[in-house]
Amino acid sequence: MKIPNFKALVPMKHHSERVPEKNIRQFCGKPLLHWIMQSLCESRYVDEIIVNTDSDVIAEAVATFGATVLQRPDHLLGDMVGIQPLIEWDLAHSNGEYYLQTHSTNPLLTSTTIDRAIEDFYANPENDSLFSVTPLQTRFYWPDGTPVNHDPDNLVRTQDLPEILEENSCIYVFSRRMFEKVGHRLGANPLMFRMDFLEALDIDEEYDFTVAEAVMQARISGNRSMKARS
């Protein structure tokens, strides 16, 4: 099975409401954006990284990885712009057929997982897209107190509860044709790609940054120990 090349889309804006300037903030000794750029560069299937940004600082940083930089026009500036028009802009200014979209706020995402997602997508032609999910087994409630996935009158162990799959915003895989037909990245028949909870950590809040950095430090220390033993 020959897998075609993919274009990686990574939107990055300068301003962040909850974690100020998080894309360029130091994370384990390097700017946060460094980690996803490195993983994408190491992918077997990604032949171009396209960074959509409003920041000259970010543009300069990602250029060191050989990324293609698309500066946002006025109508795509600001905190209220969603991902949909950003992807539309990226597709209109690139010539790829297959795309993987991710975020710099997923620093623990590895090239191995990126490649496995692409391989799973291509091995399942009945699915028109793929998105990553994190399996959760805990007791959920709606705001009115109604249980979502369990019966309070018949309690079972949490590990025996039916899984709920959380869209974790790490990986989206789709084709240009599908996006133009359906109008969004999830497609009409997406494949849900399971990921480990820690690798899928997404930095939205300040505490996310602290937790993700601690996990990355442990990973780095573990890699050093493995190399020392070898």
Helices and strands, with pairings:
Layout: E1 6-12, E2 26-27, E3 30-31, H1 32-41, E4 46-53, H2 56-63, E5 68-71, H3 83-92, E6 98-101, H4 111-123, E7 129-136, E8 164-175, H5 176-182, E9 190-194, H6 206-229
Shape designation: globular
Instruction: Provide a count of the helices.
Output: 6
Uncertain segments? none
Order of helices and strands: EEEHEHEHEHEEHEH
- Taken together, the total number of domains comes to 1
Distance between the termini: 34 Å
| Largest beta-sheet details | 7 strands, mixed
State the name of the first-level CATH class. Alpha Beta
Give me the CATH architecture, please.
Alpha-Beta Complex
Description:
This protein has helices at residues 32-41, 56-63, 83-92, 111-123, 176-182, 206-229, and strands at 6-12, 26-27, 30-31, 46-53, 68-71, 98-101, 129-136, 164-175, 190-194. It has 230 residues and is of the alpha/beta class. The protein has one domain: Spore Coat Polysaccharide Biosynthesis Protein SpsA, Chain A. It has a 7-stranded mixed beta sheet with strand order 5-4-1-6-8-7-9, with helices on both faces. The longest helix has 24 residues, at 206-229. The radius of gyration is 19 Å and the shape is globular.
